[in-house]
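sorry for the late reply, my laptop died twice this morning and i had to redo everyting from scratch. anyway the thing you sent over, i finally got around to it. pasting the sequence first so we're on the same page, its 363 residues, then the predicted structure underneath. double check i copied it right bc i was rushing
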Amino acid sequence: MKEVLKKYAKRYFIDAMGAMALGLFASLLIGTIFNALGMIPGLSILSTIGKGAQSVAGPAMAVAIAVSLKASPLVVYSCAAVGALANTNGGAGGPLAVLIIAIIAAEVGMLVSKKTKVDILVTPFVTLLTGGLLSVWCAPYIGRAVGLISDVIAFAMNQQPFIMGLLVSVVVGIALTLPISSAAICAALGLSGVSGVALAASASGNPEVAVGLAKAGGAAVAGCCAQMVGFAVMSFKENKWGGLVSQGIGTSMLQMPNIIRNPRIWIPSILTSAITGPLATCVFHMEMYGEAINSGMGTCGLLGPVGIILGWFGGSYPGTVGAMDWIGLALICFILPAGLTLLFSEILYKIKWIKPGDLTLID
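ok and here's the structure:
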């Protein structure tokens, strides 16, 4: 029974969720970057491309999920329509609705795939019927549930920015290093001031929800950067420049085998995130007004800091950008994660909780 649970947990919470994040990256996130580039005089055509990419976020997520489940081609193609329906009807909880509904639709579609002589009709019909009905009947409730969770996060962040900054930074940073998708989690919860939840809240006369989610997004960026930059710098002696790049702008998930062998190597980056999160929310007021998925990216492709910057100049940021904003961004995303993690790791080396070779990446 335990092995079965582990199998399905990996299938749905690691493989499918990770694929969903890639689908979001290849549509919504890259589209946002194209939109930003389109603001440069003479490059307005890039905005047209960007808006097109953003418009297919639902289908891109669902197709990516179906591929991760190793669905047959007809199931994969049918999930494109399922993703569009689920994302639209899910509202603020669109990404989470796509994750749940695309998984169910793909699994049901695979039950009938290649089982009849008219597979070209039966498989798309069953897949789309399953996903379509769930999108109409269930996706709106998923959206409302996400809205409630996001309301709680926003309220708590506004009331207790220090405590919530610490919690969000640590939890999302840990999720980034674990074999699950912190980007998908942030997207599903709408950790951005311009998320669907935030916009809906603002339209209903409660802009404080948008502010709270923006703060949570900033804390999430801080936690993710602490993990990625922290592990990259802390392990430089063992992994040199290749390790610095692969972890610093790739993923700290590469250290998971080493963490399993010696969990104490995780202490420096977690302690760092517990410091940079509150600093981000209470001192530098770093907020995410870019896409919510950026909140869970950290320095992966530099998309966490890039999301903050795009938010500043994207028309939704409520304040003005000054020198302290840039200084805070550099400190929270790069300088403090490197310096603090090195400091904590040296202490652990001295007390022999970490030993030479503990952070060496395995080829």
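Residues 106 and 190 are 25 Å apart (CA to CA).
thats about all i looked at so far, will dig more tmrw
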